[in-house]
Amino acid sequence: MSHTTKLLKTFFFSCVVILAGCDQSGASGSSAGNIRGYNHVASQHVNWFTVDGYRATLSGNTCCVMIPDKWRPGLTVHIEWEIDPNPREKIPMRKEGAGYDQKAYAQHKAKYIKYSADVPIPEYENSAGMSVHFLPCQKVKVYAGIASYGADTYPIKEPTNMEEPATCPK
């Protein structure tokens, strides 16, 4: 056996040993999953939101957020979001050209409100991403399991198009 062949075999064996040592299939890691948002409040629009800093909108799945492969007690996510409290307000269009009148749009945008909350993640066995539900009174619920919204096994049962109460409980 040549010296080069011995070096290649030694190198190959060393790589296998190193890679085997890196196998953490039994370790507590995280995996990427899509983010999906649901607005349950009829009188507002969620402009955008973040899950632990990963930005998303309500327009379908957004990639991605890191979710622990195994649930553990005390697991939470930090949610930030911005709402338009009057999404049906008519904003005048410019007389010439396309788009909104900039002054009117700036006045409308000044009414946007930002919120944040640390939200507990309910227990899950397998994750299929993170669903975020925006409820009245700036309440938020999340789900990280594999059931689809509306399924019998989906734990969040609040209806869509809920009304914001005149006063929110503290």
From TrEMBL:
<dbReference type="InterPro" id="IPR021733">
    <property type="entry name" value="DUF3304"/>
</dbReference>
<protein>
    <recommendedName>
        <fullName>DUF3304 domain-containing protein</fullName>
    </recommendedName>
</protein>
<dbReference type="Pfam" id="PF11745">
    <property type="entry name" value="DUF3304"/>
</dbReference>
